[in-house]
Specification:
Radius of gyration of chain B: 14 Å
Number of helices of chain B: 0
Radius of gyration of chain A: 13 Å
Number of strands of chain B: 11
Oligomer: heterodimer
Helix content of chain B: under 10%
Structural class of chain B: mainly beta
Largest sheet of chain A: 7 strands, mixed
Distance between the termini of chain B: 37 Å
Distance between the termini of chain A: 37 Å
Strand content of chain A: over 45%
Shape of chain A: globular
Number of helices of chain A: 0
Largest interface: A-B, 27 and 22 residues
Structural class of chain A: mainly beta
Number of strands of chain A: 11
Strand content of chain B: over 45%
Order of helices and strands of chain A: EEEEEEEEEEE
Chain lengths: 113, 113
C-alpha cells in the first residue's frame, strides 16, 4: 500500500511568488490534514478535509493560503503571494476514519527568499 | 502557554540505558494522546497511543495522568536506532476540531555506543 505522498519535496521561491503543494493521501482515506512546522517551532495544524469538504480550517494563517480537495482525492495547498514567514516544512496526513491514526507524508520543505 | 509542553532535551544516553520523557497538556478537553517519533528530515510516525491505564509495547511504556494532565514515555534498554525526536501529541474531544492533532515541540534523544 502506497503511503501519503507529497510533491514537491523541496521548493525554493522568491517572496511574492506563488507556490502550490500537492498531497496524495492513502487510497480510501476520507480524512486529509495539512500541518506546518516553521523553524524552531512545533508542528501546527492548518486544516482538515473530510472527502472534499473542509471540516476545520481554524489553523489557516491568513487568506494567502488556499487549500482544495476537488473530488475528495488529492489535495493542493496554494500560497499566494508567498512571504518570508511562510518558510517551513508542510506536512500532509491522512486517516481512514477521524478516530484512526494519521499517517504523514515526508513533507514539502518550502523556502521563501 | 503552549498547549503541549515537552522538555526539548537533548537527552544523550548510552546504549542499554533507560530514559523517560515527560509531557504536559493544558486543554482539559484533550481526549486522545499519542507519542510520535520523527527521524531527522522525515515524517512523524506514530509510535504508540497512550491509554488511561497505561500501556506497553515492547521496550516502550506510556503513562497518562488525566488529573495532572501529564503524559510520559519510558524507553528501556535503549538502542542506537531509538535516536530520534519524540513528539507528544494530543487531540481534543468532539466538535469540528476533533481531527486536529496538537503537537509538542519534541524531545531529542541521542543514543550513543
Amino acid at each position: 500500500e502506497a503511503g501519503v505522498t507529497q510533491f514537491p519535496s523541496h521548493s525554493v521561491i522568491e517572496k511574492g511568488q506563488t507556490v502550490t503543494l500537492r498531497c496524495d493521501p492513502i487510497s480510501g482515506h476520507d480524512n486529509l490534514y495539512w500541518y506546518r512546522r516553521v523553524m524552531g517551532k512545533e508542528i501546527k495544524f492548518l486544516l482538515h478535509f473530510v472527502k472534499e469538504s473542509k471540516q476545520d480550517e481554524s489553523g489557516m494563517p491568513n487568506n494567502r493560503f488556499l487549500a482544495e480537495r476537488t473530488g475528495g482525492t488529492y489535495s493542493t495547498l496554494k500560497v499566494q503571494p508567498a512571504e518570508l514567514e511562510d518558510s517551513g516544512v508542510y506536512f500532509c496526513a491522512s486517516s481512514q476514519g477521524i478516530n484512526q491514526p494519521q499517517h504523514f507524508g515526508d513533507g514539502t520543505r518550502l523556502s521563501i527568499l | 502557554r503552549k498547549e503541549v509542553e515537552q522538555d526539548p532535551g537533548p537527552f544523550n544516553v548510552p546504549e542499554g540505558a533507560t530514559v523517560a520523557f515527560n509531557c504536559t497538556y493544558s486543554n482539559s478537553a484533550s481526549q486522545s494522546f499519542f507519542w510520535y517519533r520523527q527521524d531527522c528530515r522525515k515524517e512523524p510516525k506514530l509510535l504508540m497511543s497512550v491509554y488511561s491505564s497505561g500501556n506497553e509495547d515492547g521496550r516502550f511504556t506510556a503513562q497518562l495522568n488525566r488529573a495532572s494532565q501529564y503524559i510520559s514515555l519510558l524507553i528501556r534498554d535503549s538502542k542506537l536506532s531509538d535516536s530520534a525526536t519524540y513528539l507528544c501529541v494530543v487531540r481534543i474531544a468532539g466538535g469540528t476540531s476533533y481531527g486536529k492533532l496538537t503537537f509538542g515541540q519534541g524531545t531529542i534523544l541521542t543514543v550513543h555506543p
